[in-house]
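At this stage, I put together one protein's amino acid sequence and its backbone structure tokens, which the following lines show:
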Amino acid sequence: MDQTAIQPGVPAAKPMETGIQTGEPPGGPATLLESKREPKHPALKALEVLADLRITVTLFALALVLVFWGTLAQVDHGIWTVVQKYFRTPLTQPIVWVPLKVVFFNTIDNQVDAIPFPSGWLIGGVMLLNLLAAHAIRFKFAWNRAGIILIHVGIIIMMLGEVITGLYQVEGSMVIQVGQDSSLVIHPTQSEFAIVRLDKDDVKKEHVISIPARFLKESDTLIDQSRFPDLPFKIKVIDYMVNAELKIAVNKHATRGFGRNHKAISLPEVSGVDPDQKHDKPAVYVQLTSHKGEDLGKWLFSTHPACDTQWITIDGVDYQLALRFKQVAREFTMHLNKFEHKVFPGTTTPKDFHSYIHLTDPKNGVDRPNVEIYMNAPLYYNGETFYQSSWTTDLQGRANGTVLQVVRNPGWLMPYISCGVVGIGLLIHFGLTLYRFIDRRIVR
């Protein structure tokens, strides 16, 4: 019998046992591939984790909840307060503490901050990283995917635009009476305690010490030269009110100035659902003490128009004291030549209000005597936009001045660019999809 024939009762030999080489190591071809595959770089592993679609879905869900809670929070707080607390938080405060009242849809009246939640910028930042990581890992450039890539580029531009707007946008107003000049932009959502010393040689020149309201919001806070070196006295905060009204009354809480005959009554913050959208009028009680330890009395200050500038004399130097809305001077001046306020016949509904401005900027050599600002026709100058917003009236109710809204936003163009890029991306994507569909139909 041939020795290679299969004999009954004898098991067939395995290839390796007979010396036959199959070209595969033990374990088969999969083991060979694994043995040749190099370990992934830690950075690549991190990108793969960050690009996970489950993270994207989770972030969208968190953003939905945050927007919903932020909307509910405006029942008790102003729009800008909510924006700063829930969305545009500092990098050092990535977590928002949401009150129980907001969590339970305003069904309970409990303002205790109880639920930690990621802030808007934290969610948006992680979402941006997730999108970039997904492109780096999964999306390879090809002409048939150009539409998808453009859509994502547009979304990234929109996100970056929000960051620039949140960091650098400035919004205020400029009030000018007919025949008068102004270079001050007032920020009605921010207040400051101002200490003004007039220059002896030039009464038009002022030396101003401005203390932002954030230093006043905690009772018993001591403000001295360690924080503001030029401060002529020490300030101890007794009570700060985010919004208050003034009433004529004998006041035991103040011993000097306006507060002796007036007292401040705390009011709730103007909410984001207020139909009039008035501004808060903060008030503060403070104790002033000289650097020598002399008691300078307890004072009441308020941004309310009824509370005028108050004076104090220290070491023969006169100082003006006021709690006011934040003011920032511009290097140019606007003079209001004329203001027109037209209404529809038989009504008080504004038809048109028109400001005729003389703009002078000596530093840049600008002199424009006939600048017109009216509804839907703003002035663009020095990186800022001046919109016709409102007007002031005299005691008889006649218009005697203009209120211009001033906006500086370096990222104002980015939302338009974003929408354009996304629109082009959608057009390309669906255009290519339609082309492939038609091409397959023709082939059939």
